[in-house]
Specification:
It holds the Pfam family CoaE. The structure is a single chain. The chain has ten helices and seven strands. The strands form two sheets. It has a five-stranded parallel β-sheet with strand order 2-5-1-6-7, with helices on both faces. Strands 3-4 form a two-stranded antiparallel ribbon. A hairpin with a 2-residue loop joins β3 and β4.
Length: 204
């Protein structure tokens, strides 16, 4: 089995690109959706979060507006939250990967926003980063409900800069040239991997 790690900063088109892998038949582990479930109503991360950050959780789960103000402005708080959530996500990911191995799946994708920051790149055979020009990223993000320039700057500060991700990743996938171009990049990478030429797929 080949494990691909996919990452990208906010607004770079990571989810759209992950969907292209899924459309091509590659099972995708969506870390964001797991985090939302763990922090949603009745989520198993809530008790530990409430102990560390009193008043941030309730019947509807984690209050993301309150937690966002705390975590984005305080690196120590952000790390404390990650220390609670990351191990739980890791357990979910291990169970999911075991199921794919039992099925004999040849290629899987980890869709992980903090792939490098969490060290999860070390568990991948190949890492990919999606990227687009900063102005396009800003246009995409500011179209989201409740998003402001200040919040976008806070999110950027909390994530590894894109130029660093591109240096560390094995494959760089552009998302600013249209969906057809991104889809061709995905198909080219998968064609290479399906021929088991792992080393030749890097920097595709």
């Amino acid at each position: 089995m080949i494990v691909i790690g996919l990452t990208g900063s906010v607004g770079m088109g990571k989810s759209t690109t992950a969907g292209m892998f899924a459309d091509a038949g590659v099972p995708v582990f969506d870390a964001d959706s797991v985090v939302h479930r763990l922090q949603g109503p009745g989520g198993c991360a809530l008790p530990a979060i409430e102990r560390r950050f009193p008043g941030t959780t309730g019947p509807q789960g984690l209050d993301r507006a309150i937690m966002g103000k705390i975590a984005f402005d305080d690196p120590d708080a952000r790390r404390a939250l990650q220390d609670i959530v990351f191990p739980l996500v890791a357990k979910e990911r291990a169970r999911w990967l075991a199921r794919q191995r039992r099925r004999g799946v040849p290629i899987v994708l980890f869709d992980i926003p903090l792939l490098f920051e969490s060290g999860m790149d070390r568990q991948c055979d190949l890492t990919c980063v999606v990227w687009s020009p900063a102005f396009l990223q800003q246009q995409r993000v500011l179209r989201r409900p409740g998003m402001t320039r200040e919040r976008l700057l806070a999110v950027r500060r909390a994530q590894m800069p894109t130029h660093q991700k591109r240096r560390r990743a094995d494959v760089s996938i552009p998302t600013g040239l249209g969906l057809a171009t991104t889809r061709r990049s995905v198909r080219k990478l998968l064609a290479c991997l399906r021929k088991r030429r792992l080393s030749g797929c890097r920097h595709a």
